[in-house]
Sequence to fold (271 residues):
Amino acid sequence: MLEARLEQANLLKKVVDAIKDLVQDCNFDCNDSGIALQAMDNSHVALVSMMLKSESFSPFRCDRNIALGINLTSLTKVLRAAQNEDILTLKAEDAPDVVNLVFESAESDRISEYDIKLMDIDQEHLGIPETEYAATISMPSAEFQRICRDLMALSESVSIECSKEGVKFACQGDIGSGSVTLRSHTNVDKPEMNVEIDLTEPVSLTFSLKYLVGFCKASSLSGQVKLCLSNEVPLLVEYALANNSYLRFYLAPKIGD
Amino acid sequence: VKNQKSILGFFQKK
Fold:
């Protein structure tokens, strides 16, 4: 059986909120290492990969591999009933029909309990190859969100060019063009404001802004976002969570003109 | 999406 207790419901609320517009039905794969999720969007352009390590829960117990097929719209409805600060416990039997969610208020004696019916989801897992990326950029997640939103006002797509000069986000649209360039930057007082660019060779790729703006819904999960790029491979957008847990998005590039 | 590659072109089904 599965029993996983999260100190704050907020974490799951934010994760589900960040992915629910991208994927609708998905398996939460539970085993003794934690709870994982991998799903593609309907157009097969983007892939979300979530890992909530067992260390992110206290306690965490999962004796066997259990796949919880959950509709994220249903999960969102139930998670809305949880306060951000509530303690959240997920429970399921070994061959479950439902997943049980318990929300406990730390301040009051209120305990709420919900069951969500599970779905049988036949989901194919994709093998994600280990990649030595040509460029890795760590930057404030709010900055990345702002750049994507600003450029989306002009164009459907953005080119991300990484060179010794820095990283340049550029777009061209009907009304004109725009770009934002960031250079490496260290803020001793506020490390979450750092921009770090690790480059082994120059990269230039084009991506759909609609997807990137969608990924940025995860911004509240982490002060920093990591972008990993290599020519001709999907972009990796990673939001690191505590205890080596993570929320990753992969986005296939667009073909250049 | 026009000119958009698929993620399946990069990651293989297990």
Observations:
- Chain B has a mean pLDDT of 88.
- Residues 3 and 9 of chain B are 13 Å apart (CA to CA).
- DSSP finds no helices and one strand in chain B.
